[in-house]
Every structure is written in structure tokens, then in C-alpha cells.
Amino acid sequence: MSGSTFGELFRVTNFGESHGVAIGCVIDGCPPGLALSEADIQIELDRRRPGTSRHVTQRNEPDAVEILSGVYEGLTTGTPIALLIRNTDQRSKDYGNILDTFRPGHADYTYWRKYGLRDPRGGGRSSARLTAPMVAAGAVARKWLKEHRGTTFVGWMSQLGDIAIPFVDEAQIPLNPFFAPNADVVPALEARMDELRKAGDSCGARIEVIARGMPVGLGQPLFDKLDADIAYAMMGVNAVKGVEIGAGFASVAQHGSEHGDELTPAGFVGNNAGGVLGGISTGQDLRVSIAIKPTSSIRTPRRSIDRTGQPTVVETFGRHDPCVGIRATPIVEAMLALVVMDHVLAHRAQCGDVALDMPPIAASAPRD
Amino acid sequence: MSGSTFGELFRVTNFGESHGVAIGCVIDGCPPGLALSEADIQIELDRRRPGTSRHVTQRNEPDAVEILSGVYEGLTTGTPIALLIRNTDQRSKDYGNILDTFRPGHADYTYWRKYGLRDPRGGGRSSARLTAPMVAAGAVARKWLKEHRGTTFVGWMSQLGDIAIPFVDEAQIPLNPFFAPNADVVPALEARMDELRKAGDSCGARIEVIARGMPVGLGQPLFDKLDADIAYAMMGVNAVKGVEIGAGFASVAQHGSEHGDELTPAGFVGNNAGGVLGGISTGQDLRVSIAIKPTSSIRTPRRSIDRTGQPTVVETFGRHDPCVGIRATPIVEAMLALVVMDHVLAHRAQCGDVALDMPPIAASAPRD
Amino acid sequence: MSGSTFGELFRVTNFGESHGVAIGCVIDGCPPGLALSEADIQIELDRRRPGTSRHVTQRNEPDAVEILSGVYEGLTTGTPIALLIRNTDQRSKDYGNILDTFRPGHADYTYWRKYGLRDPRGGGRSSARLTAPMVAAGAVARKWLKEHRGTTFVGWMSQLGDIAIPFVDEAQIPLNPFFAPNADVVPALEARMDELRKAGDSCGARIEVIARGMPVGLGQPLFDKLDADIAYAMMGVNAVKGVEIGAGFASVAQHGSEHGDELTPAGFVGNNAGGVLGGISTGQDLRVSIAIKPTSSIRTPRRSIDRTGQPTVVETFGRHDPCVGIRATPIVEAMLALVVMDHVLAHRAQCGDVALDMPPIAASAPRD
Amino acid sequence: MSGSTFGELFRVTNFGESHGVAIGCVIDGCPPGLALSEADIQIELDRRRPGTSRHVTQRNEPDAVEILSGVYEGLTTGTPIALLIRNTDQRSKDYGNILDTFRPGHADYTYWRKYGLRDPRGGGRSSARLTAPMVAAGAVARKWLKEHRGTTFVGWMSQLGDIAIPFVDEAQIPLNPFFAPNADVVPALEARMDELRKAGDSCGARIEVIARGMPVGLGQPLFDKLDADIAYAMMGVNAVKGVEIGAGFASVAQHGSEHGDELTPAGFVGNNAGGVLGGISTGQDLRVSIAIKPTSSIRTPRRSIDRTGQPTVVETFGRHDPCVGIRATPIVEAMLALVVMDHVLAHRAQCGDVALDMPPIAASAPRD
Questions:
Q1: Domain containing B143: what range?
Q2: Which member of B79, B349, B351 has the closest CB to residue D221?
């Protein structure tokens, strides 16, 4: 309930505001002995960096990360890893006009009501900029998981506004600014974004993310189910309004004889489960899908009130992503990695490190 | 990460197995001075009780709750409230045939892989029976919230398998075993359930739940967002595969100019937000929708493996709900109440109890 | 801060009041596969049971424990272990006279001020009776630690009032009702207790407790230091007013050249550290000493006030231990075991299960 | 169990190493609206700063704090307050000789055994330098508590090695480098320190700390007792080996008729309780006393082993406090403030903010 710490055993404490001095995080509980440099982290931060295409905010910041502690001679020591990212391109004046009013669909109103005051510069703490430290922390988790469990994460955009993006080729994902696994649809996406930008409006997106090489047995039976922690993590990302695991909402109309993935000695047949049964990982790929709402900071004039309760009209200028989903893929990959990392540590706390002697259905059994 | 404790300040620790001696919970952190009797709790337990219609498991248990501690002369004392429900109608032999195999879509396999052993009687800890203590704990939270904040909770079924249930009349909800807000559709629901039972198959459901009279300002900015905690709570309910807040997945195709709920002196216009902006409650109704997968324990024969990894075929007999969604409504109401209660306490820890002096847009402004 | 849950990974949630229906606890996070029966727990409960000599409260209860969950076919399943102890010999009328007044030195006053109401029967939640569930939980931890790490716990009384009890022979501890490691001093202890009982007064005690066969490397660097968690655990036992680790307060007057335990290939020389350096276990024996204040419920008349603030005089009748230290030994052993267990799980979460390849100074090096 | 986060509701996450890039902390849960500047924090940091007399380490650092987040236009916003202190006077070569050996009485050995590697520069994470961020966080808590509850904190040295320091005059405390409440004894303290420095040895100290203006009712009944949390906090300070509340170890030899503080309409008579009964604050002054062991880094040659287990001799050069107790007073004041702050927030979470209507015995009743 602290509001700024994520995870129980691999704990990430996030701090900062969009236009403050700096943002960053402290990672506590990282296993010792992991080779870690700033470059290992920077590579992930660069994937979500603003200013990389005309479709995202033109805020231009290197988002250079500095490791302040927890690494000695290139290895993690087991003590807290503090990561610092200085803010360098704040233009708070862009936001001056929102000081006394509340953008419809934005946290302006709720922060003000909760605390009685708020930092309005760039959205303050409610800015999506605060996902950068999570991407940085996620990079540490991803490195450990890849080296010690062979677990990897990949995400992509599957829908932009009302444009579906059929999955064609994973290799395409890093080749376009939308993280679209489909080269053919990219021109349509670009056209839509240009159109929205011109109209001063915004749209939503759907993002998919999977984990491969999952250990079996992660997750707690009742609460801290693996899928519950994933839902929590994803709904904690700015603008997310829905989360599905595996078949998700489609499972409502399925029959049990269709939904339940059969088991064979060669592995599971199908993955309606999304890699989780009873809150515990099956060894199949984790499959998660999320809905991201349209950006609330738009140029279109909208009705609102001011701090005295009087009616007013709000238009938002400044630099905004017309679809925050465009940069969301590295973020959701990072969040999923943080959840899995936390559960790997929790599992070995209770059940130990040594693999149980189990029959031949492989954790790495066929996945879809 | 403990797996059995829900909440930070209004903490519920759940214990028990479906066919063990007893199930129950310990509630810690309840404010002192709340008038509380077993009858206050029993009324909610009776709403989710098995054996109440032919469409749910025929297990026949009174689910009578006993308050073991924390109440003195009819008032909560501020110390832990332990609640005990004895199991009285276990027929574990019904499950004998699943001891060495794994039901497709069920937690049998993952429990066994996680712990190296499992209690197979009635699904052990993975049984939906373990939601009963949460309903009991939720009854305590609901009573306090109603008396001290005027907050109330109501849920209903909006879809059963592929049958949509249009919302017509809230007064209908308690009048049919499906919690359907629509008397006309009930015969179709009954026919579908009879058909599935005959076929030895099962189906999923969609449940809606709202909170009315919400305090403004509940939720933490980054993690422990109100909606993130709701998603966590809902995904912790057995068989849930998807969660939406407000417009949910529909927000993907919305424009920002459509999605963002405008503010007027009379309140918000619309509720795409589902009552949460930036993770913090707006005072609008909370609106949550969840997807429940079809029951995995079905009579239809399905491929599986046994504990030695050899292929086998599984059919499940015994008493099962062919749609666990039918009894889910009181459960999701309870879980939502537990989340709100926890956030009320967290909010007054940091921000105090006294309402801030704020302008006239009412917390109880017009809601859709 | 929940107030009723002890531990992070081996979590014990305690409930109940002295004269309520029942007391008990829920243990969450216990490793699966531990052979566990009620007899394993009862043996420790019997060591702290009231009514076993004329020097302790004459309340006569079997304190029979019932395992409600978490054990299947004699093995822990990894899910919560709920333990229930019914109260059977409440005589609340004995306490009637303290309903409206506050015993000096007792929690009567603070409970009333904190909550605005209190359960006065037998001290309610503030009774030392609530240590029984901790002894029960400790029995589970002790069994696992002995079997999996070879760690054992033993405590004794080293002072009763102003009578020092020189350590002579560990074998004597279970042979007298004081847990005194010295047969010769027992008659003096008995005489002192008879004298106090006659005088309607009470006295304090000092208890020592050690852990043998300690793993090296338990404890966290800054907070959750092993010794900090021990101090927290011990100060959580009723009536404890002081805690020392190793040389304790004597270290104030030591020189560094005397205090710091030298290392040799055969192990540490001396144990001023008490088995902890920098918050982390050295592998030496843990050495802890605690001060227990005299019982506040005495027959001697004392000045107090009533609930309206008027002066009054209080004398306490009913059944009380004239020295709560007499039954404290099994309690502090249990608390120490719970701390060590929690840290064993925490250590393997972060650092894994496999022993590091380290040079010959043995964890089990010579201890004093 | 995370090891680097202190507190549940006013949470302080500490990071850094003695000779790393920086040290600091993140405070989460601070109430909004507190006027806060770097000067408010710096004043406390300056009280524990090294290099201020010849009796403490000659490391010369300004320990200038930078507020990175959580404050807007001079007021706390309710979001995380990140505090950064750059390290500026590291001379790690001073420590080169301890890389492969273990100082007796120091955490060198345990860190290495726990993690398999360690940052040896200046003691890395085990350095007392890591108390600086806690002093900074404590300054924030102290400011809020003073303004909102009228609670203040003061500590002093009561013993240095074997020299007792009788309490004479609180006004003397800030006037000498020992925080001694007694001008007459200062020359003896100085002589002793000069002698130890010359001898290449060190000594321990005893520190007292009290809180005045305490709210009544802080603390949880069973665990998270106020005194248990104080013991935890104090034992978490480097080199602390013992903690007493109120009469502490002296209570062992007291009778109940002497120990229990009587109540009168004018308040409590005496304070053997140290301000806590049953784990809950009485409104009397909190009274805490701690034992600090002699510094382990001394020039006197001592037996040890190297990393291969071979015998060796260790002498420590570099800059060290010959008595870490000299600078401990501001630290223990800060730790006590952090505990009280956390409990104030916990109390109002459960019991609300509004004072209960209680009879005339004042929270601020006569104190000794």
C-alpha cells in the first residue's frame, strides 16, 4: 500500500516527477554476483525513449541512467541498486494553463482531491515518464532471468485505435516505431497517427506480451497468484483499463471441453490458460493482453471545471504522445519480468532451489 | 507474497482446504467500535452458499460462521477477528480418481509441480470454496463502509456462455439464482445450464460489479493504484481470466475526445473512467467487469497424463458447478469491498480523516 | 504494522483473547513436505502450560492444539497451517473489579485509550496467554530447522528477582519448574516465590536463549538485521523491557581489542558478538538475554484512577503468575526459532539454496 | 525482510555504500502539505557529520543533501521524497589491506559469507555512514511530529567506556562533541579518547533517548508493539548490542509493587514503563537506552584468517571513529522519530484522527 514500491522480494522503489530534478528507483533484493553495467540498462531505456519518431512526444531526453550503488567491480553485491535518471528537457511553462483546471480523463482532478495540492508540471507523479525507472529495473530482472532461468520476454502492439494488427513476424517488431509484428500494416498506423495529430485527438491501443522459458510452479495459491500479480502490474501502467490472461474475455463463451488445455507426454495442447492454472505457472508461455486508453491530454477543447468549481473549457498544448500505447511495449515487458523475478525468489524461499524430481512433461514443453 | 493474506491495513488471512477440517480467516486492522454479530456475516455467506439451486454444486453445507475473537459485547475491539467455518459435507471419495492424474484446465498439475505433493480432496486449497472466508471478511468491510462512508456494492451477471444478459432492473438480481438483472432472460439461462449438465460440459460467465457512494481520493499514485488493486483482487478469484475497469477493452478504439469524461459543476459527464483516474478514485461509481472461464471439472473425457508422465484419459465425477460464475457475484462484491476498505484506511493514514475543504463538485455527483 | 502477523516469509498470524472462545494462529509459507502432527506441537505447548507448579497461574487448561489445515497425510502441503486452541477454563468474574479501573503497570489503560473500548476478561488480547500460539508456531519452525539445518534452541532462567542463577548444567533445565540450569539454587527460588505469593507481590526475571548449529549469512545488512529482528521478537513477548545480544550492555565498557572476537582456522575465539556481525549470522551460537518485568496484577493495593478520571485503589485478585518469567523460556525459544526460520527462507530467496564454496572456517566452529 | 526499507506507512528505503557514488533514501507515505526545504534536513545531518572534532573520523564531507522529488513549491506533495547525498571524500586505498582478511568484530566476514563477494571500500554497506540517510529521513518525521503532534526528541550520552556521565543539564548537550548533558565530565571524556587514539584501541558507549509530547495509544497489541519496533530500530543502528525501555534490565530485580507506575488524576507517578504498557504508548515520555560496542576497526594487531582460511594478523589503518557512540545521538533520535511517525500514521489508519473523548488524565501528564 506504500504506493511506490513494487514487488516483495525483488523490490523496486520508484521516485520522481516528470518535471522535477530527477526520476529513478532503488532495487532491493537482487541476487549477488550478477554482472551489471549501465549499458545493460540503457539498452532497454532507449527502447522506450521519447523523441524517437514523429508519433511520440517530442520531449528530447537521453534518459541516461547512472548506477549509484549496489554494484562493485561490475557485479551486483546483493545490496540496493539505486538508479538515477536526471530530467533534462522540462518545459513546465507548456503546462501553465492546466494549473487551475482539470483535464478530462486525467489524474489532475484526483491528485488535487487526494492531497489538497499537486505538482502540475508535466503531470507530476502521474506522468508516464515514471515508467522509465521500471524499465530500468526490469532490465536487471531480465538479465538475471535470462542467465539463470532462460526466461525471456517479448511484447508487441496488436491493435491501434480500431486498426487490428495481425501477428505475422516477430522479427518485424523492432523495425518500426509501433512495435508492430507486421510490416504491411505500418503505413496505415502512420497515417492514422498523422491524422490524429492533425485533429488534436488521440487513440488507444492493445498490447500483447509473453514470457518464454517459464519455470513451472511460480505463484501462490490464493492471493499473489501469478496472474493476479500480473494484472496488478499491468493495471499499474499508465492508461491501462483492461487485462487478460490467456483466452481472457473469450473464455466466457468457451465450453470447458474447449477451454481446458489437454496434457500429453509432449506437453500441453493449446494455451487458453495463458501459462497459469490456479494462479501457478504451468511452464507454458505466459500470455498477457492489455487495453490502453487514449491519451487525455489533447488539443480538442473539452468541458471542465476550475478549482473553485466554475465551468471552464480545457485545451492541452505541450508535448504529448497521441497514443501512449506506442511506447508501452518495453514497459509491459519490464513489468512482466519484474513479476516473474519476484515469484522466482518467492518460490525458492519456500520450496528451495533444487528442481524437484518430476516426470517427463517438460517445463519447456510445446507452446503455441 | 505470502499467498494467503489480502490487504495491507484491513488484512485478511485465509486458511483451509475444501475437504479439510475447516476453512476460515483472520481479519486484522478492523476499526474498533463496529457493531458486529455472526448474523451480519451469515447473510452474505448464504448468498454464495452451495446447494441453493439445481444449477450449482449439490454439496450441502450450512457454511455457518463462528466468530472466535475480536468482538466483545457486540462491538469490534480493534484486535483480530477470527472467523471459522467447519466443513461438514466432504465426500472425498468422489475425487479418488483424480489423485494420480491432472484435470485439463485445473490446478491439479501446477500444485503438484510447485510443492511436490498436493491435497487432492475437492481440489484442496485451489477450490472455489476458499472464497467463502473472503465473503465473510467482505461482510465486515461492507458493514463498516456503509455505516461510515455510505459506500455500497452491487454485482450481477451480464453474460452466461454466449448469452448476453442486458441490464434491465437491479431489483431482479436477488430474485433468480443467476444474479441476473433481467427476469426475461432467466428461462434461457436455465435451459442452457440444463443442457450443459446433461452434456457433461461447462461454460464461462461475465460478472459486473460497482461501488456507489465512493470517497474521492482513494488509491496510490504509482503502485497500489485503486484499479491495480482491484485487478489483483478480481484475478485472485478462482477462474477469472480478464478484468476491465470502466470502458475497459472498448477504450482501445475510443478517441481521447470521446473517452475522457468531462467535468461540470454538477459532476462528471459519463464514466468511461470507471471511477478511477491516475489510480485514484474520482467519486464516480467504481465499475468493474470480469471474465470467468468455464469450470475445468467436467464429465467429458479429456486427454491428460498421470504422475509418471504416461498418457491417460480423465473424466471428472463428483459435485461441481457447471458454471462457477453463477455463485461469483457475492464473491466479487466482497473482494471489491475489501479493496475499498483497505484504501480508506490507507488514505486516512497519510492524509487524515477530516475532509479537505474543496469546491462544490460533489463526490456524489451524477453517475451513469 | 498489522500488529498480529509475525514474520515475512514464514508468517504467523495470531488471534484470540485470554477469555474468548479460542486462541490460535495461521502459519503461512511453511515449506512443503515436513512431517507434522499435533503431537509435535503439543510437546512444546505443554512446556509453557499453566497450572504445572504452585509457582504459576492455577488456571488449568490442557491447551490442546488442533491442526485445521495445511497438513495432508501427515505432511505439510505448503499452504496455510491453521492451529486452534479452545479456551476452556475462563473465570472472567475474577476480573470483574478491574473493568472500570486500570492496574498500574498493565495494558488496561493503554488499550482503553487506543481503542475507546476493551475486552477486560483476563487481560483480553494483552494476556500472556497469547504467546501459546507462538509456541505452537515455533514448534513447526523448530522441527524444520532441526531436520533441514541442524539448528536447535535452548533457553534458561539466569536470574529471578535479585537471585542470580549461575549456569551449571544444561541437563537440569527441564527438571525444575523454573527452567534453571542449576539444581542447587532451586530451593531458594521456591522460597522466594512462596514469599512473594504470600506478600501479594511479584518479581522480574532474566532469561537467556541460544541457537546452536546456526547457518552463516542469515540477516539483512541495514534493516531486518538478524539481531534487530531478534530484539523485535523478544520485545514483543509480554513484560520484556530489555534485550541484549552477545556481550550486550557489558560491551559499553569493553575495549575494541577485547570485544572483537578473533578468527582462527579453527573458528572464532570467544562470542562477544553473540553470533551476529553487521546484522548477519557468523555461524557462532546466537546468544540472547532478556529482562522481564514483575507481573502487574498483584494483590498489593495501589493507587489508580477510574474511567471517569477519579482516584481509586486497585487490588488484583484472580489467578496470576507472580513471575511471568517462570514460563517464559519455551516462549523465547519459540520466538528465536521463528526469527531464524524467517531468515533462512529470506536468505535462500536472494542467495539460493546451494552452499557457497567457502574456505575451511566452519559454520560449526568452536563456540563458547 | 527487504533489508533496506524501514517503516510500513512512513517508509524509508535506504541505498548506498560508504565509498560508492552516493548514499540516500526515498521516503514514501509522508503526509502532503508539510513545509520542507533542504535546510530543514541539513541541520540534522550537520549534527552527525564527520570531521567536527578530533574525536571522530577525520573524513571530511559536507554531507550536503539534495531533495530530488516529492516537494513542490516548498510543500510535500504526498509522493516519494528522494534524498541524495553524494560521497566526496572517499579514500578507498586506506582500506586496501582488508580486502582479503576479516577484521575481528566487523561485518567483513559475514558479508563475504552471505553474498560470496563484498564491496570492501570503507566497509561498503556495513559502514555507519549509511545512518546519514536515516538522520535525513528522521528530520522530515521530526518536523511533521513537532508541528502536528507537539512531539520532540532528545538524546544524550550517559556512559563512555567505563566513565558514567551523570545527567546534569540538558542545555549542555549541544555544547560538547559527546552530546554529554554534563560539562564537568567532558575533560575526562576527552582525555579518554586521546588515550584510546594513542593506544590504537576503541571503546563503547551508552546512549539515552526520550520522546516528549507523546500521543497516547500508539503501538499494536501483539507484534509491532511500540517498544518492539523501537528495539528493532535501535538494534538496526550500527554497533548496538543492547536495548532497554524504561527500567530495562533493572526491572528484573524490582517488585511489582515498585515497578508498576501508579496513576493519579494528575498523571502517572514515575516512569518505569518508559512510556509503553502492553506495547502501546501511555502518553508519558518514551525512555530508551542503548549499548554501543567498541569500534572494530582498530590499529591494535589481532588474529584473523584470510579468504583461503589461512591464519593472519589484521591491523586497521584509515580514518575511524574510536567510539562510534560519539556521533550516535542524532542517529538514535532520528530512529525513534521514524518509529513514532510510522505509528502515528498506523494509529490513524485504524482508529481515525479525531481524539477520543476521554477523562482528564492528560497525555501530557507529569513525567519524570
A1: 91-351
A2: B79
Question: What is the distance of C-alpha D356 from the center of its chain?
Answer: 32
Residue B73: partners with Cβ closer than 8 Å, 6 or more residues away: none
Question: 3-class DSSP state for residue C5?
Answer: strand
Mean pLDDT across the stretch C159-187?
A: 97
B37 found inside a domain: no
* Cβ-based interface (< 8 Å): residues of A facing C: 9, 29-32, 78-79, 221, 345-346, 348-354
Domain count, chain C: 1
Of D237, A353, A46, the C-alpha closest to C221 is: D237
SS3 state at D146: helix
D275 and C263 Cβ atoms separated by less than 8 Å: no
Measured between alpha carbons, how far is A279 from C317 in angstroms, rounded to an integer?
A: 53
Phi–psi pair at B209, nearest 5 degrees: -145, 140
SS3 D270: coil
**Does residue A8 belong to any structural domain of this protein?**
no
Residues of B in contact with D350 (CB under 8 A): 9, 29-32, 78, 345
CA distance A270 to chain B (A): 11
Cβ contacts of D248 on chain C, cutoff 8 Å = 241-242, 291
Q: Look at the block and give the residue holding cell 490456479.
A: A278
Q: pTM (2 decimals)?
A: 0.95
Contact yes or no for B15 and C125 at CB 8 A = no
The pLDDT tens digits for A223-260 are: 999 999 999 999 999 999 999 999 999 999 999 999 99
**Cβ contact, residue pair A294, B3, below 8 Å:** no
Q: What is the CATH number of the domain that holds C301?
A: 3.60.150.10
Q: How far is A277 from chain D (nearest CA, A)?
A: 29
Query: Count of CB atoms within 10 A of residue A176's CB?
Result: 18
Nearest to B350 among D31, D351, D352 (CB): D31
B294, pLDDT greater than 70: yes
Residue in the structure block whose three cell numbers are 538479465: A143
The verdict on residue C219 lying in a domain is yes
Give residue B90's pLDDT: 66
The per-residue pLDDT for range C175-215, each reduced to its tens digit, is 999 999 999 999 999 999 999 999 999 999 999 999 999 99
- Which pairs from D88-94 meet CB under 8 Å and 24+ separation? D88/D61, D88/D62, D89/D59, D89/D60, D89/D61, D90/D18, D90/D19, D90/D121, D90/D122, D91/D19, D91/D59, D91/D318, D91/D319, D92/D19, D92/D121, D92/D122, D94/D122, D94/D317, D94/D318, D94/D319
According to the model, what pLDDT value does residue B366 have? 35
**What is the rounded CA–CA span in Å between residue A111 and residue D38?**
24
pLDDT value at residue C353: 73
Which segments of A are annotated as binding site for FMN?
Answer: 125-127, 238-239, 278, 293-297, 319
Nearest to A125 among D9, D16, D79 (CB): D79
**DSSP type of residue B136:** H
Chains in touch with C (3+ beta-carbon pairs under 8 Å) read A, B, D
Per-residue confidence at D1, pLDDT binned at 50, 70, 90? low
C77 contact residues in B (CB cutoff 8 A): 17, 115, 117-119, 124-125
Q: Stretch D302-326: mean pLDDT, rounded?
A: 88
Q: DSSP for A24-81? A: EEEEE-PPTT-B--HHHHHHHHHHH-TTSSTTS--------EEE-SSEETTEE-SS-E
B56: in domain: no
Tell me which of C23, C69, C345 to substitute to probe the interface with B (most B C-beta atoms closer than 10 Å): C69
The answer to whether the CB atoms of B348 and D351 lie below 8 A apart is no
Going through D11-114 in order, the beta strands assigned E by DSSP cover 11-16, 22-28, 65-67, 71-72, 75-76, 81-86
User: Which residues, at least 6 apart from C120, have a Cβ–Cβ distance to it below 8 Å?
Assistant: C95, C98, C99, C108
